[in-house]
Amino acid sequence: MNTYPLKTTRLVNAFIVFASLVFAVNAQAQLNLCTSPCVAAQAVTPGVEASIQLQWRGDVEVIGDAAIVTSKDGNFAVGNATNNTQLGNVAVPLRVTLSGPQRGGAATAFAINEQLVVPAQVSRRAAALGAVQLHYVRTFSVNGISQTASYAIALNQFAPNASRSLNSASDPSASSVGLNRVDLRFNTGKQVEVITAGTKLNAIATLNFDRAGMLDAVWEVATPETTIGQAVYRPLQNVRQALAAGRQVAIQSPALPTDNAGVYRVRLRITSPASDQNAAPVTLSYQVQQGNTARAIDSAALITLASPAPNITLDADTEFSWAHTQGALAYQIEFFDSATPDTLRPITGLQLKPKQTQALLTASVFNRLLLGQTYYWRVVAFDSEGRVMAASELRPILTSP
């Protein structure tokens, strides 16, 4: 049986890693994968969270009515197959059910999509260990037969906020940056932060682009006076930077305001070149609380949770819902790794649209939850001034083993 190699290709807004798999499902079944790490089309910057869209593709010779291709989880590592260091787990199962062909003996093609988040702490630790690349590994199974595939993700060897120089013969003003994607995270690696007043906080924007040119942008922030409803942004810092072709660059914001209690929003608004990012810039939200967070939550009204029930096992279809609180204009789902945390700072979370009272979790939230663990989630409500006005109990939820 032939072994089909992994292939890589570049797409707008992401890069797709094609993993070609071939399964033969019968009494003498064999499962072949690309056993050598395949190289991803784009590098990541150490210490900066990156989002990558993957697509695993292959063929199965289905004997009978159906076959199910599964992968329980993925793992990050540095090193090689016999000497490696594990860096983190991706607790997101993959699954596809294939129907049998109309005529026996024909192979059935399949494709499994995965939205992979490379956490900031994973790439940072890989770089600290002296690695120039990290590996993402998955084991796929069909009818009890398993095989492992992996690909290598290169680590950028340049520092955030410092793109490589343009060719001396080129005129950056004469070319337009081919901007593909902008990802935004806090310097803590999170997309949601709850902090006390005076805590230092920055945002980091990771830009993926494929043509050299000049970037013009503005860091902007909306303060608690306007964030509940139609946010009004004010400029924090102008950015003008020459970018080299085919690279990824990280741009850090100045220190964000954290002096007054309430909900803040921050964004990097790109003014040039023109792209979809201009019309809908990515935003982050963070909440500043005065004094002890636990005391603020204890004194708030209680939100009634509807679903999920306590101690269920989380999956992609788990819906979170709760009763609306009179006067609440915004909600936030928060996750913790303890039922009695010393400080109620979530390890991950999801901020919702005004008055939204149900939601499914995003891939970035899933990717921060480890397999086989018990977590505790709650819903927090904010009033028109961004102050906590209600909160639910902490309810346990499980991740699959």
UniProtKB/TrEMBL annotation:
<dbReference type="InterPro" id="IPR013783">
    <property type="entry name" value="Ig-like_fold"/>
</dbReference>
<keyword id="KW-0732">Signal</keyword>
<feature type="signal peptide">
    <location>
        <begin position="1"/>
        <end position="29"/>
    </location>
</feature>
<protein>
    <recommendedName>
        <fullName>Fibronectin, type III</fullName>
    </recommendedName>
</protein>
